[in-house]
Amino acid sequence: MAGKPKLYYFNGRGRMESVRWLLAAAGVEYEEKLFKTAEEFENLVKGGKLMYQQVPMVEMDGMCIVQTRAILKYIAAKYDLYGKDLKERAFIDMYVEGMRDLNDMIMFFPFSLPEEKQKNLSYILERATERFFPVYEKALKDHGKNYLVGNQLSWADIQLLEIILMVEEIKSDALSAFPKLQEFKVRVSKLPRIQKFLQPGSQRKPPMDAAGLEVAKNIFKF
Ligand SMILES: N[C@@H](CCC(=O)N[C@@H](CS[C@H](CC=O)c1ccccc1)C(=O)NCC(=O)O)C(=O)O
User: Fold this and answer.
1) CA-to-CA distance for 217 and 196, rounded, in angstroms?
2) Residues with CB under 6 A from ligand 1
3) pTM of the predicted protein model
4) Exposed e or buried b for every residue in 121-150, given b needs 16+ CB within 10 A?
5) pLDDT tier at 2 (50, 70, 90 boundaries)?
Protein backbone atom coordinates (compact mmCIF):
# COMPACT_ATOMS: atom_id res chain seq x y z
CA MET A 1 0.00 0.00 0.00
CA ALA A 2 1.62 3.25 -1.12
CA GLY A 3 2.29 5.74 1.69
CA LYS A 4 0.96 9.26 1.80
CA PRO A 5 2.26 11.78 -0.76
CA LYS A 6 5.30 13.68 0.53
CA LEU A 7 5.61 17.38 -0.33
CA TYR A 8 9.15 18.81 -0.39
CA TYR A 9 9.34 22.59 -0.04
CA PHE A 10 10.15 25.36 2.42
CA ASN A 11 7.69 26.41 5.12
CA GLY A 12 5.76 28.89 2.99
CA ARG A 13 3.15 29.18 0.25
CA GLY A 14 5.32 29.88 -2.80
CA ARG A 15 4.58 27.53 -5.65
CA MET A 16 3.50 24.65 -3.38
CA GLU A 17 0.37 26.22 -1.88
CA SER A 18 -1.88 25.29 -4.83
CA VAL A 19 -0.74 21.67 -4.45
CA ARG A 20 -1.71 21.73 -0.76
CA TRP A 21 -5.15 23.10 -1.71
CA LEU A 22 -5.75 20.50 -4.41
CA LEU A 23 -4.76 17.53 -2.24
CA ALA A 24 -6.94 18.86 0.57
CA ALA A 25 -9.90 19.22 -1.84
CA ALA A 26 -9.29 15.66 -3.05
CA GLY A 27 -9.38 14.45 0.56
CA VAL A 28 -5.83 13.15 0.33
CA GLU A 29 -3.69 13.26 3.47
CA TYR A 30 -0.07 14.17 2.86
CA GLU A 31 3.21 14.66 4.70
CA GLU A 32 5.40 17.74 4.34
CA LYS A 33 9.21 17.83 4.34
CA LEU A 34 9.71 21.52 5.08
CA PHE A 35 13.37 22.52 4.92
CA LYS A 36 14.54 25.67 6.72
CA THR A 37 18.09 26.19 5.47
CA ALA A 38 20.07 26.30 2.24
CA GLU A 39 22.07 23.33 3.52
CA GLU A 40 18.94 21.20 3.86
CA PHE A 41 17.89 22.18 0.36
CA GLU A 42 21.38 21.42 -1.01
CA ASN A 43 21.26 17.98 0.64
CA LEU A 44 17.94 17.36 -1.08
CA VAL A 45 19.49 18.37 -4.40
CA LYS A 46 22.45 16.06 -3.76
CA GLY A 47 20.00 13.25 -3.04
CA GLY A 48 19.24 13.27 -6.76
CA LYS A 49 15.45 13.28 -6.48
CA LEU A 50 15.01 16.74 -8.04
CA MET A 51 15.01 16.45 -11.85
CA TYR A 52 15.93 20.14 -12.30
CA GLN A 53 17.47 20.63 -8.84
CA GLN A 54 14.32 22.59 -7.95
CA VAL A 55 11.27 22.30 -5.71
CA PRO A 56 8.25 21.88 -5.43
CA MET A 57 8.63 18.13 -5.55
CA VAL A 58 5.91 15.65 -4.60
CA GLU A 59 6.84 12.04 -3.95
CA MET A 60 3.80 9.90 -4.75
CA ASP A 61 2.92 6.67 -6.57
CA GLY A 62 6.62 5.78 -6.86
CA MET A 63 7.49 9.02 -8.63
CA CYS A 64 9.34 12.20 -7.64
CA ILE A 65 7.12 14.64 -9.52
CA VAL A 66 8.55 18.13 -10.13
CA GLN A 67 7.31 21.19 -12.07
CA THR A 68 4.26 22.67 -10.34
CA ARG A 69 1.92 22.34 -13.34
CA ALA A 70 2.86 18.68 -13.81
CA ILE A 71 2.18 17.99 -10.13
CA LEU A 72 -1.20 19.75 -10.23
CA LYS A 73 -2.31 18.06 -13.47
CA TYR A 74 -1.39 14.62 -12.14
CA ILE A 75 -3.35 15.16 -8.92
CA ALA A 76 -6.34 16.72 -10.72
CA ALA A 77 -6.52 13.83 -13.20
CA LYS A 78 -5.99 11.15 -10.56
CA TYR A 79 -8.75 12.46 -8.26
CA ASP A 80 -11.36 13.29 -10.91
CA LEU A 81 -10.93 17.05 -10.60
CA TYR A 82 -10.01 17.61 -14.24
CA GLY A 83 -13.38 17.49 -16.07
CA LYS A 84 -15.20 14.63 -17.78
CA ASP A 85 -13.89 15.18 -21.34
CA LEU A 86 -11.34 17.14 -23.39
CA LYS A 87 -13.55 20.23 -23.78
CA GLU A 88 -14.13 20.52 -20.02
CA ARG A 89 -10.41 19.99 -19.49
CA ALA A 90 -9.66 22.80 -21.98
CA PHE A 91 -11.84 25.19 -19.98
CA ILE A 92 -10.28 24.09 -16.70
CA ASP A 93 -6.84 24.75 -18.22
CA MET A 94 -7.90 28.19 -19.51
CA TYR A 95 -9.19 29.14 -16.07
CA VAL A 96 -6.29 27.77 -14.00
CA GLU A 97 -3.65 29.26 -16.32
CA GLY A 98 -5.24 32.71 -15.98
CA MET A 99 -5.39 32.28 -12.22
CA ARG A 100 -1.74 31.24 -12.25
CA ASP A 101 -0.83 34.53 -13.96
CA LEU A 102 -2.56 36.44 -11.13
CA ASN A 103 -1.18 34.06 -8.51
CA ASP A 104 2.41 34.64 -9.72
CA MET A 105 2.00 38.42 -9.34
CA ILE A 106 0.86 37.92 -5.73
CA MET A 107 3.46 35.22 -5.03
CA PHE A 108 6.34 37.47 -6.08
CA PHE A 109 4.93 40.67 -4.55
CA PRO A 110 6.88 40.21 -1.27
CA PHE A 111 10.08 40.38 -3.33
CA SER A 112 9.19 43.85 -4.71
CA LEU A 113 11.60 46.70 -4.06
CA PRO A 114 10.22 49.01 -1.32
CA GLU A 115 9.77 51.88 -3.77
CA GLU A 116 7.75 49.62 -6.11
CA LYS A 117 5.45 48.01 -3.53
CA GLN A 118 2.57 50.46 -3.84
CA LYS A 119 2.67 50.42 -7.64
CA ASN A 120 2.81 46.61 -7.73
CA LEU A 121 -0.04 46.31 -5.24
CA SER A 122 -2.23 48.63 -7.35
CA TYR A 123 -1.33 46.63 -10.44
CA ILE A 124 -2.31 43.33 -8.79
CA LEU A 125 -5.68 44.72 -7.67
CA GLU A 126 -6.32 46.33 -11.06
CA ARG A 127 -5.61 43.05 -12.89
CA ALA A 128 -7.65 41.03 -10.39
CA THR A 129 -10.74 43.24 -10.62
CA GLU A 130 -10.49 44.42 -14.25
CA ARG A 131 -9.15 41.34 -16.07
CA PHE A 132 -9.45 38.11 -14.07
CA PHE A 133 -12.44 38.28 -11.72
CA PRO A 134 -14.76 39.49 -14.52
CA VAL A 135 -13.92 36.29 -16.44
CA TYR A 136 -14.93 34.00 -13.58
CA GLU A 137 -17.98 36.09 -12.67
CA LYS A 138 -19.20 35.78 -16.27
CA ALA A 139 -18.34 32.08 -16.39
CA LEU A 140 -20.45 31.37 -13.31
CA LYS A 141 -23.30 33.53 -14.64
CA ASP A 142 -23.31 32.03 -18.16
CA HIS A 143 -22.73 28.45 -17.00
CA GLY A 144 -25.54 28.76 -14.46
CA LYS A 145 -24.27 25.92 -12.28
CA ASN A 146 -22.54 25.77 -8.91
CA TYR A 147 -19.13 25.19 -10.46
CA LEU A 148 -17.00 26.84 -13.14
CA VAL A 149 -16.93 23.79 -15.42
CA GLY A 150 -19.42 20.93 -15.89
CA ASN A 151 -21.58 20.13 -12.90
CA GLN A 152 -19.00 18.92 -10.45
CA LEU A 153 -16.10 20.35 -8.45
CA SER A 154 -12.89 20.70 -10.44
CA TRP A 155 -9.33 21.97 -10.05
CA ALA A 156 -10.54 25.32 -11.47
CA ASP A 157 -12.94 25.84 -8.54
CA ILE A 158 -10.24 25.05 -5.97
CA GLN A 159 -7.76 27.41 -7.62
CA LEU A 160 -10.43 30.14 -7.82
CA LEU A 161 -11.22 29.97 -4.12
CA GLU A 162 -7.50 30.05 -3.29
CA ILE A 163 -6.92 33.15 -5.43
CA ILE A 164 -10.06 34.93 -4.15
CA LEU A 165 -8.87 34.54 -0.55
CA MET A 166 -5.37 35.74 -1.46
CA VAL A 167 -6.71 38.87 -3.18
CA GLU A 168 -8.98 39.53 -0.19
CA GLU A 169 -5.86 39.39 2.03
CA ILE A 170 -4.71 42.41 0.01
CA LYS A 171 -8.10 44.16 -0.21
CA SER A 172 -10.92 42.72 1.90
CA ASP A 173 -13.72 44.10 -0.32
CA ALA A 174 -12.18 42.93 -3.61
CA LEU A 175 -15.35 40.98 -4.47
CA SER A 176 -17.72 43.92 -3.94
CA ALA A 177 -18.55 44.13 -7.66
CA PHE A 178 -18.82 40.36 -8.14
CA PRO A 179 -21.99 38.86 -6.61
CA LYS A 180 -21.57 35.46 -8.27
CA LEU A 181 -18.01 35.18 -6.92
CA GLN A 182 -19.28 36.12 -3.46
CA GLU A 183 -21.83 33.29 -3.59
CA PHE A 184 -19.21 30.92 -5.02
CA LYS A 185 -16.77 31.73 -2.20
CA VAL A 186 -19.36 31.00 0.51
CA ARG A 187 -20.55 27.80 -1.19
CA VAL A 188 -17.14 26.25 -1.91
CA SER A 189 -15.69 27.29 1.46
CA LYS A 190 -18.42 25.21 3.09
CA LEU A 191 -17.46 21.97 1.34
CA PRO A 192 -16.33 19.75 4.22
CA ARG A 193 -12.78 19.10 2.95
CA ILE A 194 -12.25 22.79 2.13
CA GLN A 195 -13.81 23.92 5.39
CA LYS A 196 -11.37 21.64 7.23
CA PHE A 197 -8.41 23.02 5.26
CA LEU A 198 -9.50 26.58 6.12
CA GLN A 199 -9.50 25.82 9.86
CA PRO A 200 -6.51 27.02 11.94
CA GLY A 201 -3.96 24.27 12.44
CA SER A 202 -4.36 22.82 8.93
CA GLN A 203 -1.40 22.49 6.55
CA ARG A 204 -2.41 25.72 4.79
CA LYS A 205 0.37 28.28 5.02
CA PRO A 206 0.01 31.96 6.00
CA PRO A 207 0.95 34.90 3.75
CA MET A 208 4.70 35.46 3.52
CA ASP A 209 5.99 37.85 6.18
CA ALA A 210 9.40 39.54 6.40
CA ALA A 211 10.91 36.60 8.29
CA GLY A 212 9.60 34.10 5.74
CA LEU A 213 11.00 36.24 2.95
CA GLU A 214 14.46 36.13 4.52
CA VAL A 215 14.24 32.36 4.92
CA ALA A 216 13.26 31.91 1.25
CA LYS A 217 16.04 34.25 0.11
CA ASN A 218 18.61 32.36 2.19
CA ILE A 219 17.47 28.96 0.99
CA PHE A 220 17.16 29.80 -2.70
CA LYS A 221 19.98 32.36 -2.76
CA PHE A 222 18.24 35.20 -4.51
N1 LIG B 1 9.04 25.85 -13.20
C2 LIG B 1 9.27 25.39 -11.85
C3 LIG B 1 9.97 26.49 -11.07
C4 LIG B 1 10.36 26.02 -9.69
C5 LIG B 1 11.22 27.02 -8.92
O6 LIG B 1 11.49 28.11 -9.38
N7 LIG B 1 11.60 26.61 -7.72
C8 LIG B 1 12.46 27.39 -6.87
C9 LIG B 1 11.90 27.51 -5.46
S10 LIG B 1 10.34 28.23 -5.38
C11 LIG B 1 10.63 29.98 -5.65
C12 LIG B 1 12.04 30.49 -5.42
C13 LIG B 1 12.21 31.74 -6.25
O14 LIG B 1 11.95 31.73 -7.46
C15 LIG B 1 9.74 30.79 -4.81
C16 LIG B 1 9.93 30.88 -3.45
C17 LIG B 1 9.08 31.67 -2.70
C18 LIG B 1 8.04 32.37 -3.33
C19 LIG B 1 7.91 32.25 -4.72
C20 LIG B 1 8.75 31.47 -5.44
C21 LIG B 1 13.78 26.67 -6.77
O22 LIG B 1 13.81 25.47 -6.55
N23 LIG B 1 14.86 27.45 -6.87
C24 LIG B 1 16.19 26.85 -6.76
C25 LIG B 1 16.90 26.84 -8.09
O26 LIG B 1 16.24 27.17 -9.10
O27 LIG B 1 18.09 26.50 -8.09
C28 LIG B 1 7.94 24.99 -11.21
O29 LIG B 1 6.91 25.50 -11.65
O30 LIG B 1 7.92 24.16 -10.27
Assistant:
1) 31
2) 12, 14-15, 53-56, 67-68, 107, 216, 220, 222
3) 0.97
4) beebeebbbeebbeebbebbeeeeeebbbb
5) low
ipTM above 0.90, yes or no: yes
Residue 80 CA, distance from chain mean position: 18
Q: Which atom of ligand 1 is nearest to the CA of 222?
A: 13
Determine the distance separating the centroid of ligand 1 and the alpha carbon of 123, expressed in angstroms.
Answer: 23
Whose CA is closest to atom 30 on ligand 1?
Answer: 67
- Closest protein CA for atom 12 of ligand 1: 220
Cβ pair 18, 73 in contact under 8 A: no
